[in-house]
Specification:
This protein starts with a helix and ends with a helix. The longest helix is centred in the last third of the chain and has 34 residues, at about 420-455. Strands 5, 6, 9, 10, 22, 23, 24, 26 and 27 form a nine-stranded antiparallel beta sheet that branches. Strands 12, 17, 18, 19 and 20 form a five-stranded mixed beta sheet that branches. It has a four-stranded antiparallel beta sheet with strand order 13-14-15-16, with no helix packed on it. It is α+β, with helices and mostly antiparallel strands and about 450 residues long. About 15% of the residues lie in helices and about 35% in strands. It has helices spanning about 1-30, 190-195, 420-455, and strands spanning about 40-45, 60-65, 75, 85, 90-95, 105-110, 115, 120, 130-135, 150, 160-165, 165-175, 205-215, 220-230, 235-240, 255-260, 290-295, 305-310, 320, 330-335, 340, 345-350, 355-360, 365-370, 370-375, 380-385, 385-390, 400, 410, 415. It is built from three helices and 30 strands.
Length: about 450
């Protein structure tokens, strides 16, 4: 019995020593960003089934429980690259010598990121922040869970880049009381563009406005939209460049598109019956977002063909073109594309989009940050640098967009504090120290019993 009691005391020393180590780890990481506390839990060791006439002590063993799923408090920060996850999920990071080398993908809540000498973002543990590079339409890869499609975040290589116009949204009102244009009966496609190129021409537009578009090198071009009222609730329009020499010679007088805008009796647009045609007379379906294509000229520079989707409103609504009895006017226009300047700063939204801010006031989404979720985050394997990797206990990861599929939102300009409660840790330390001292008394008492047995 004395030998088994001695072994039980030793198991207590081992278990409580391990518990002190867990508490020490928690206390020393009280100021570590994104740190998740651990807890020691104890379980009995049974050597045999006790009977009424005998008992064999077994002892105790310690288990470490990781409380990774606990949310820490979010502390505001002045740095736009200080990030946290408000809810479930983890940032995806890569551990490697530098951002361009292959390395192990890991997951972390420690979002104190800053730029290195090459412009890549890494946290205080040297782990590089990874994200999806947006395609030309602003989308992310369809295979979201493929880690190999993630790239290290870097916006410094965007200085001086350009983006061609891909979408133009127009909101305008055409005055309903406008009389049918005198030239409506003889109007032919191209007359308005010809009148602008060689005034006065044969037709005078009832409405005219302009907007800018950008080619693939960021050069701006002015597009004129002219329209005449050709019938009740029916307007014929043309789009043409104010400088026809900027286009290929096939675009006579700079014409790129023509068609008709039809309206319902309540002033909303009848999109199903409105039309757009390119210079070859080929229809462009406005209702499905089909792009209009045209060819720039080959003067001093050679650029890609124009490829623009025009949004003139929703069928049956007045959120684009409308026809009410107020003066004809362009209310608003929204044109994508630009000649970007030098990267001035970065902005990260709650939805995970990473925007490059340029010194000319423009901004452009470049990346989107995934949020990795797990069936059991408390089962993740701990790694150096306050990071984790998935294990059999955690289950496999799922890369979600922020705020979707159970993933939390990105909280920019904020850091997640450690979940350690110092008062609770000190209280636990006192309890474990008392238990350790009691275990030493078991050993000394068992030693005295054994010593008496030896003297017999």
């Amino acid at each position: 019995m004395a030998f088994t009691a001695l072994a039980a005391g030793v198991s207590g020393l081992q278990a409580f020593s391990q518990s002190v180590g867990v508490i020490a780890d928690n206390i020393t990481n009280v100021n570590t960003i994104g740190y998740k506390e651990s807890r020691s839990r104890f379980s009995t060791l049974v050597t045999e089934t006790s009977s009424a006439s005998s008992y064999s002590p077994g002892g105790v063993r310690a288990f470490t429980e990781s409380l990774i799923s606990r949310q820490g408090l979010l502390q505001p920060s002045s740095s736009p690259t200080d990030l946290s996850v408000d809810g479930a999920g983890f940032f995806v990071v890569k551990k490697s010598g530098n951002a361009t080398e292959d390395g192990e993908f890991q997951f972390t809540r420690a979002g104190s990121f800053s730029k290195d000498e090459e412009g890549f973002f890494k946290n205080t543990a040297g782990l590089y922040l990874m994200g999806w590079k947006l395609d030309a339409t602003g989308g992310i890869p369809s295979r979201q869970n493929d880690l190999t499609l993630l790239e290290p975040i870097n916006i410094d290589n965007l200085n001086g880049v350009a983006s061609a116009t891909g979408r133009v949204s127009l909101r305008a009102n055409l005055q309903s009381s406008t009389s049918v244009n005198a030239a409506a009966g003889t109007y032919a496609v191209g007359d308005m563009a010809a009148a602008a190129a060689t005034p006065p021409g044969t037709v005078t537009p009832d409405f005219e406005t302009t907007f800018e578009v950008f080619d693939s090198q960021g050069i701006s071009h002015t597009v004129v939209l002219s329209a005449i009222k050709s019938n009740a609730n029916d307007w014929s329009y043309e789009m043409y460049f104010d400088n026809p020499s900027e286009l290929d010679a096939a675009h006579t007088d700079g014409l790129i598109a023509s068609g008709s805008l039809l309206f319902n009796s309540d002033g909303s647009i009848d999109l199903a019956n409105s039309t757009m045609n390119d210079i070859g007379g080929n229809p462009v379906d406005l209702s499905t977002g089909q792009a209009l294509t045209f060819t720039y000229g080959t003067g001093v520079t050679s650029v890609d063909n124009g490829n623009i989707v025009f949004n003139v409103g929703t069928d049956g609504q007045a959120n684009g073109f409308s026809q009410f009895d107020s003066p004809s006017t362009l209310i608003a226009s929204n044109v994508t594309g630009a000649q970007f300047g030098n990267v001035n700063d970065i902005r990260i939204g709650e939805d995970g989009y990473v925007y490059a801010l340029f010194d000319n006031g423009l901004q452009e989404p470049i990346f989107r940050l995934p949020v990795a979720t797990f069936p059991n985050p408390d089962g993740l394997a701990r790694k150096q640098g306050n990071a984790y990797s998935f294990s059999n206990l955690s289950g496999n990861f799922a890369l979600q967009t922020a705020g979707q599929g159970g993933a939390g939102a990105i909280a920019p300009n904020a850091l997640e504090l450690s979940t350690v409660d110092l008062a609770n840790e000190f209280a636990e330390l006192i309890k474990v120290q008392r238990a350790f001292s009691a275990s030493t008394r078991i050993i000394t008492t068992s030693d005295e019993i054994l010593e008496e047995l030896v003297r017999i």
